[in-house]
Write a structure and sequence with these properties.
Layout (H helix, E strand, L loop, with lengths): L8 H17 L12 H8 L3 H14 L2 E4 L15 E4 L5 E7 L3 E7 L5 E8 L6 H19 L6 E8 L2 E2 L5 E3 L11 H6 L6 E5 H12 L8 E5 L5 E6 L2 E2 L22 H4 L12 H12 L3 H25 L3 E5 L9 H11 L5 E4 L6 H19 L15
Parallel strand pairs: 3-6, 6-9, 10-13, 13-14
Antiparallel strand pairs: 1-2, 3-4, 4-5, 7-8, 10-11, 11-12
Helix pairs in contact: 1-3, 6-11, 8-9, 9-10
Length: about 400
């Protein structure tokens, strides 16, 4: 297709198609539960009836809109019932995948982002990159088989994983997973799908999820902390994800490298010697012993919480968010919220609200699904597309 100009009629058709499709997909065209009619769409969009009718026919041809059969008993004073239409959410599917240290999980949705099914598999923290990728493919294949969904209907795949992720989906630095640093993850996964694959840091994915469907709904300036052995944070500023210049924004777990505080293996030690091995199983034992009343373990947990408070306070001072959401396995610690609230009130000029994640362990996969939804929206509502007929369609 040649370059579009301001007077190009194909551009106007694209704009009109995007306006009508947006109304149908988001259910804004009609206040009642019934699917909208052409009259409803004309009223909402401000377009002429012939324009709306032509756009709807093009959208039906592209597979993005379907006509709804009249309800039994629905009649008009004269003639046949008014034609009604709806967004064809079943025309394709989206996938959100989490690839973490101990498990792989996946969510399958329709084109609205409504979850249809999920799958997960546990793996060892020591699993190699190849083993992790193979397990990911297995989880996806089983989920698609169970839901009866052909792989060819996938329109976008989002992936959330630990590490600093480049724009092309390569992991520039990923210390949490063996063999992850330097892995061209996006490229490797694209071999398994015939659609775009979008890879993002796990904390960044989680903040998108909490803003979309979780505790951060309604807050456009928020921080999501995934509190683990090395806590990371994802941030939204003005409703937009803040990745930083090189995708490393929010790596608060590295603050101890400044040399001003003890390393994590010292913070969590109960013997005076560095905790070894420093893995989640060893840390889980420390937390369990603290719950059972062991004083040294309780002191280690207190140090851990204090470290987390300092890490979060540094980010809050820099970004001044409205809300801090705490997720990750450390979110289950007894009393983690009150120290955070108390210390943030002490350090910060305007303390934010602090809440626990509403999505729990599903946050990263849900955020990955949100990445896929956002990519689809960019395709559906872009006005500089390539559809010859002027209707918004899928790029194959």
């Amino acid at each position: 297709m040649g370059r579009l100009t301001g007077g190009d009629p194909s551009l106007l058709r694209r704009i009109n198609s995007a306006v009508v499709l947006h109304a149908l997909r988001d259910g804004l065209a009609h206040a009642s539960s019934a699917a909208p009619t052409l009259t409803d769409l004309v009223r909402l969009t401000g377009l002429s009836r012939p324009t709306v009718e032509g756009v709807v026919e093009g959208l039906i041809e592209s597979g993005l809109v379907v006509e709804v059969r009249p309800a039994s008993g629905e009649t008009r004073r004269q003639g046949r019932p008014a034609r009604r239409f709806r967004f064809h959410a079943e025309a394709g599917h989206l996938l959100g995948i989490e690839i973490g240290p101990h498990r792989v999980s996946a969510l399958l949705s329709d084109l609205r982002g409504r979850v249809l099914g999920s799958g997960a598999a546990v793996l060892a923290a020591t699993a190699s990159a190849e083993e992790r990728l193979e397990r990911t493919r297995g989880v996806v294949a089983e989920l698609l088989r169970r839901q009866g969904v052909p792989r060819s209907t996938l329109r976008a795949v989002g992936v959330g994983t630990p590490g600093i992720v480049e724009a092309d989906g390569a992991v520039r630095l990923g210390t949490a997973l063996p063999g992850w640093t330097g892995l061209p993850l996006g490229e490797r996964l694209r071999r398994s799908f015939r659609c775009p694959v979008l890879v993002e840091n796990d904390a960044n994915a989680a903040v998108l999820a909490e803003h979309w469907q979780g505790a951060g709904s309604g807050a456009d300036d928020l921080v999501m902390v995934l509190a683990g052995l090395s806590p990371g944070a994802g941030s939204l500023i003005g409703g937009r994800l803040h990745r930083g210049h090189g995708g490393a924004a929010g790596e608060i777990g590295a603050l101890h490298l400044l040399g001003r505080e003890a390393k994590p293996e010292q913070v969590l030690s109960t013997t005076g010697e560095p905790l070894h091995p420093l893995d989640e199983a060893a840390v889980a034992r420390v937390f369990e012993q603290a719950r059972e009343g062991d004083r040294r373990s309780q002191q280690a947990v207190e140090r851990f919480i204090q470290r987390l408070v300092h890490d979060v306070a540094a980010l809050v001072l820099a970004l001044d968010p409205e809300l801090v959401v705490v997720g990750g396995w450390a979110a289950g610690l007894d009393g983690v919220l009150e120290p955070l609230r108390r210390e943030l009130a002490r350090y910060c000029l305007r303390p934010p609200r602090v809440v626990l994640s509403a999505l729990g362990e599903a946050a990263v996969a849900t955020g990955a699904l949100r990445l896929a939804v956002e990519h689809l929206e960019e395709e559906l509502f872009a006005v500089a597309g390539t559809a010859e007929s002027g209707a918004v369609g899928f790029r194959r």
